[in-house]
Write a structure and sequence with these properties.
D-Maltodextrin-Binding Protein, domain 2, single chain, SBP, Bact_solute-bd_prot1, signal, Raffinose/stachyose/melibiose transport system substrate-binding protein, 2 domains, alpha/beta
Length: 422
């Protein structure tokens, strides 16, 4: 083992301390666990860490990153272990509520006060509130949209800006196929990218009233006709073979990189895909801004949902039970206007702190921020809103539909059964 002069000095200090009875001052380390992000977002976190550590001598902050699915799979076990992080990344929703109920998160209500609390919108803090108590701090909001490769769309003769209805979108998929271009990149191995299609179609069919009714367990819940019809419309897309070859073998990160490599016209994904498609592309640069655009998910004819209903979520940081006091102090720094503006300017996320949206520079994010602010109903990611177990069933149902191994009726019933058994 390599034992340098610095380590010798530390060992000597410890020896002197043990002899003299002098206490040894150890650093306090705040551990954060985060789903993987592009380097530009990591740079923001590192800058915030530097500021915090400079103002708090002896306190350190360490962030560990895991690929999206690995993060979700490892998190539950970690939160029940003796090696719990102090702060975890969270998509809020039902999963957060379940974590609160299992006693693994910390109530930070008394600490979120004054100007810091006032810097957030009530709705964003509400996403991290369970039974009137706050368990986390919001980071950003998101909208899932179709990212469009303008060059490939033109090659296929697709007027993507004219896509307003589901039938319009299906027609665009057919045009891409006819032109020999892959219509959609999806990354089905992780399943949740497929759930975006199924969820959005549910929202467009059921609308606000239908979604809220299903969550309340009224009538047939998620097995009601509107949800079955959403599955039928998803099947209309699947029947066109719209995805990349071997789509169930690619992860989100791989699919995003291939979209960045220019291998498909569309990618249904949230705002984070701007950076991810660049980071995971072969060139590391992805699609140039001038060749990239976004469109909203289309409406379905006769559906109760509106074009102005949005689908996405509020992301942020949940504080783990028994976390060190410095954890919340660091979140005060990280969620300050300065770093929210940096995130906005770099396209890392759509900021949540009041006034930070003025730093949005790219048209994609300005459009998304406008959509969310004017939303007639914003539906959180359904695999998160339903909680871990029912959410997993939802992802499975979407994947099964995409592979043609279940029917729209059975898929809807499986989700309802899981939701009713929670």
């Amino acid at each position: 083992m390599k034992f340098g002069l610095k380590n010798c000095g530390i060992a000597a200090l410890a020896l002197v301390a043990s002899i003299s009875g002098m206490p040894v001052m150890a650093d306090t380390i705040v551990h954060i666990l985060r789903a993987e992000v592009p380097n530009n977002e990591k740079a923001i976190y590192n800058e915030a860490i530097g500021e915090f550590e400079k103002a708090h001598p002896g306190d350190k902050v360490q962030i560990s990153y895991l690929a999206n699915e690995a993060y979700k799979q490892k998190l539950t076990t970690l939160l029940q272990s003796n090696n719990k992080p102090d702060i975890i990344f969270s998509w809020a929703g039902g999963v957060l509520s379940e974590q609160v109920q299992s006693g693994v998160l910390q109530d930070i209500t008394p600490k979120l006060n004054g100007p810091w609390a006032a810097s957030f919108s009530p709705a964003s803090v509400g996403a991290f509130t369970v039974d009137g108590k706050v368990y986390g701090v919001p980071l950003g909001t998101s909208e899932v949209v179709f990212w469009v490769n303008k060059t490939l769309a033109a090659k296929a003769g697709i007027d993507y800006k004219g896509i307003k209805t589901w039938q319009d979108f299906l027609a665009a998929v057919k045009k891409a196929k006819a032109a020999g271009v892959t219509p959609i990149m999806v990354g089905g191995k992780d399943k949740w990218p497929l759930h975006f299609y199924y969820s959005y179609l549910m929202l467009r069919e059921a609308g606000k009233a239908g979604m809220q009714s299903a969550f309340k367990g009224e009538g047939k819940g998620f097995a009601a006709p509107a949800f079955v019809k959403a599955g039928e419309e998803f099947k209309q897309l699947i029947d066109l073979n719209p995805f990349e070859p071997g789509f169930m073998s690619l992860t989100f990160e791989q699919a995003s990189g291939q979209f960045g490599d220019g291998k498909a016209v569309f990618h249904l994904m949230g705002d984070w895909d701007y950076g991810t498609q660049k980071a995971n592309s072969i060139s590391g640069k992805g699609i140039a801004d001038e060749n990239l655009d976004t469109i909203r998910f289309p409406v379905v004819t006769g559906g109760a949902g509106q074009y102005t209903d949005t689908f996405g979520g509020v992301t942020g940081w949940a504080v783990v039970k028994d976390a060190k006091p410095q954890a919340v102090e660091f979140l005060k720094v990280l969620s300050s206007l300065k770093y929210q503006q940096e995130g906005a300017a770099g396209g890392s996320f759509i900021p949540i702190v009041k006034g930070a949206d003025t730093a949005l520079t790219k048209p994609f994010f300005k459009s998304m921020a406008k959509d969310v602010s004017a939303s007639t109903y914003h539906q959180n990611f359904l695999n998160e809103a339903l909680g871990a177990n029912a959410g997993e069933v939802f992802n499975d149902a979407a994947a099964d539909l995409a592979q043609g191994v279940t029917s729209p009726q059975k898929a809807a019933e499986s989700i309802q059964n899981a939701w009713s058994m929670r």
